[in-house]
Write a structure and sequence with these properties.
9-stranded mixed β-sheet; about 35% helix; D-Maltodextrin-Binding Protein, domain 2; 2 domains; 12 strands; alpha/beta; disordered N terminus; binds arginine; about 250 residues
Amino acid sequence: AGCTGSEAPADQGQDAGGSDNVPTYIVGVDSAYPPYAYMEKDGTITGLDVESIQWIAEKKGFKVEIKGMDWDGIIPALQQGKIDMVYSGMTITPERLEKVNFSVPYLTINQSFAVHDDSGLTMDDIMAGKAVIGAQRGTTGAYWVEQNLIEKGIIPKENLKYFDSFPIAVTALNNRQVDATIYDKPPHMNSIQGLPLHIVGEIYTGENYGVAIRKEDNKLLATVNEGLGELMASPTWEELLKKYEML
Ligand code: ARG
């Protein structure tokens, strides 16, 4: 048996007993986050991040259970031991590093704004405070708007609308309940596909994605770092990036 659940801290799993004792780590993802993690029709969660950790698990000899979660509570869930890692396009930030550790970076992204095709809104308009903006709660996109538009008095705080998942924000933009949305560019492009919405501009935040792991789980961190290194050096990495249209 593995070491899933709350009885045994997952990190001890690596030391636990015989060779048939393969530890299972619970991987928390936001399953409404294509192309990194999303749910297929049959309920299976897949995506670039999910396939990456499955590959790493296979290579390093552990099992994973993928658990869909609310984004906003995902770090507390990790701290409380409900999950063993967050592998879900999470930006490495100084604030988060106070609470958890991060793996080596595996992708670098920028923020982007999307608007309605016929709105005529430009980046200059948004920067001048002329748009009501939608963002996913607890994301670096929301923090960017708070720090750069609200705290500087360019928009009142009512003009940033928070959504628990990003697909709901996109629906609000499509229904003109907000004038613009901010999000990491790759999932932003993915989620507006087929809708009369477009990316109007980028903010070059150059954020690095990492896997978040509890501070005390040093062995797991080392294993994931090794696995990420092996994945990124293997041909699989480029195949995955192509498959999920990251190249
Ligand atoms: N990279 C951004 C952040 O860390 C957005 C992540 C959103 N991820 C997700 N799984 N919904 O805040």
